[in-house]
Fold these 2 entries.
Entry 1:
Amino acid sequence: DQQVKQNSPSLSVQEGRISILNCDYTNSMFDYFLWYKKYPAEGPTFLISISSIKDKNEDGRFTVFLNKSAKHLSLHIVPSQPGDSAVYFCAAAAKGADGLTFGKGTHLIIQP
Amino acid sequence: EAQVTQNPRYLITVTGKKLTVTCSQNMNHEYMSWYRQDPGLGLRQIYYSMNVEVTDKGDVPEGYKVSRKEKRNFPLILESPSPNQTSLYFCASRKGRISYNEQFFGPGTRLTVL
């Protein structure tokens, strides 16, 4: 049973436009959420995170929104750049637990 | 440079032949983890370690062993590999239990078990 779901395996966006990646979760114990970015032949790298006490966190071109009632979070990238083409993983941490639960990932392709 | 290194990066082996994937970090991190990534499944935690000589099972520990004799090293041991352990493996380290923002991943080890 997938506790963190990324229902879009891939997403294609034109350069300069907004990219929106979505993530849903089912476990009410999750209280911290992260987005990781992964290039081919490299390990994931941390991108941005949000605590469950917030509904928005912004870092430059990247913004994460959290809707706790809907158990949904999204990552917005504005404007999208060619270097943003990568696989993005949504991950969640439960209070008191060790380790992260990851989604399957969304492959973002930025078209020139 | 802060990094997590894994060796080997690629390995093809046969069923039942014991193997070890090494992981080393140079950041003096207490927490280290092993994940495997499979198509359609994302990353799943195999084992983790909170400090030297302290390890615990993650979500998919069957068929794996780990050890943490030194702070910097966290090898993953497959005593008798099977084809269902064909996967992409990542080692990760972080300073503390909830320091996920500062979690570093290694480059990955692609293992094929024939």
Entry 2:
Amino acid sequence: KAGVTQTPRYLIKTRGQQVTLSCSPISGHRSVSWYQQTPGQGLQFLFEYFSETQRNKGNFPGRFSGRQFSNSRSEMNVSTLELGDSALYLCASKVMGTGGHYGYTFGSGTRLTVV
Amino acid sequence: AQTVTQSQPEMSVQEAETVTLSCTYDTSESDYYLFWYKQPPSRQMILVIRQEAYKQQNATENRFSVNFQKAAKSFSLKISDSQLGDAAMYFCAYRSDVNRDDKIIFGKGTRLHILP
């Protein structure tokens, strides 16, 4: 099975612009979560989608939004970029394994730099 | 709110030796999962080991094992026979199993150096 694919791997944007990041989960995985990783704050939960519905949202401003398509691919959008949005954005897909135990597989992330 | 604390920002261990990474967490819940993830320079988070809170037996995966102390809310990772490929950031993480949401709470991480 292919892993979780995130595109692009690197992105440089200017303050005030908007950006869209993409995540394709492992085939058959319907849950996709997004995380922001910065040196100062560490890894912070952004939101989670399941079957095209947002099920949970972290403590981020409304400039951060996302969506999920019928094929489970997910996008996250950040509008009016700020310097502090520079981070590694990771997505993870979840699968229910044997015995009802969950597993999470992460992508390699998109490194966003805001200048 | 749940929190995860890793008190060791960096650690070093000689190749082939054993090292233990510490993690404590705070929660009022009784049902949850704990994880150790490894993040090498490739950036991808790789699951090292998982522990279900209802299980008293400590999880093991080859050279990796945990010491899960539920009452003390402690979840340390032991790496035996350390190898150069073990060098990475290690994150301790918590996921509630009460609301079944998929929010994982991560610690700040421990950078592990392997000395040849």
